[in-house]
Amino acid sequence: MKARGDPEERALRRARWAITAQIAVVVSLLVAVAGAVAYGMLLSGQHADADRTLARTIQLGPATIPPGCVWLFTPGTHTPAGPVPPGMPLPSLDAAVPSPGDVHTERRSLEGMTYTIRVENRDGVVSQAFFEERYQIQDRSSLVFGLGVAEVLALLAAVLCGRVLACRAIRPLADALRRQRTFVADASHELRAPLTRLHTRAQLLARRASGRDAEDLDHLVRGTRELGEVVEDLLLSAQACGERPSLEPVELGTLAEEAVAAEAVRAGESQVRLAVTRERRPYVVQGVPTALRRVLSALLDNALGHTPPGGSIEVWLGVPDDRHVELRVRDTGVGFPAADADRVFERFARGSDGDGRRFGLGLALVREVVTGHGGTIAAASKPGAGATFTLRLLRADPAGQHA
């Protein structure tokens, strides 16, 4: 059964709605553009029709009754006969056609109604023709209303269709995530039993051994315990559907010493000096012990992998201020260009110095864990001068650690 707070499910829902919204926006824009084109063509056609009607009315003169909604005024008469709409004619417009053959056209509002006005000088006689746009305005209003209804219907249809298409497009991804989670849960469950047996047998051997063998077996017990914790975390993560684990006080100094002790044999075989530098004081942070242990293990593994024989690795802990604990892993290895300081935390990123070097996955996972704890991690290095990784986490109880 899926949890309501599953980040993966929330991400899938967001993706579905994002696709639906994009489809709806595209369809709405297409309908709006088509409506604007239709409105523009109607408006242009109405204006052209009004201009032709007025030109024909002036050409025929007052002897012919003009079409409906048209008035023609000449110096001596007007047509059609009867009451003249207020404001007609406009003597001031005669100045716009001072010479024979001049034509002036404009659109003007008179007494709340819009008119197309054509003023023409024919052989010295100035005529004014007015076309009332009452019905043209009604046609445009009807078109706008129809386009609005079409826009709403198209938006609704786009949302429905977009939702269906989005669900179909996301379904393979949802299936893949579900299979991945099932695989992690099944694999973790199958690994837990043999690891538990291995850990138990290692404990029994450690109790019976003495001297150097006992110390080596203690390291083996800690290693199997850590491996079991990793498997347990994977199983819990799969069962909890990605819910954030609860944080607890963790003594980072103790974890650092345990991580260094776990890598001591490997460091000795590689002829690399490995040490912890810290004050004898608590370095307590809020975190998940198993996750922070993996962070330290990954940082040390990275340092050992890039430090040649005769080099050294130092794990330093300090308290830079009242709110943070700082841990640095400094090595004397091959280093990397300063331009790659951010790229080293990207998954399978390649270096910028042209040697094709890949940084792998470990440091990317380290940053994800540190960020999930509300902390920061930064890298500093130069080619041939080693590298320093600085981890900063919030202290668990700043006030209580002053003692």
Q: What would your notes on this structure say?
A:
With 403 residues, the chain is of the alpha+beta class. It has a domain at 245-401: Histidine kinase-like ATPase, C-terminal domain (Heat Shock Protein 90). Helices cover 50% and strands 18% of the residues. The chain is built from seven helices and twelve strands. The chain has helices at 7-60, 134-208, 212-239, 252-262, 264-269, 289-306, 362-372; strands at 70-73, 78-79, 103-110, 113-122, 125-132, 248-251, 273-277, 284-287, 312-318, 324-331, 376-381, 387-394. It has a five-stranded antiparallel beta sheet, covered by helices on one side. A five-stranded mixed beta sheet has the order 7-9-10-12-11. The longest helix has 75 residues, at 134-208. One of its GO terms (cellular component) is plasma membrane. It is found in: Cell membrane. It comes from Amycolatopsis australiensis. It catalyses: ATP + protein L-histidine = ADP + protein N-phospho-L-histidine.
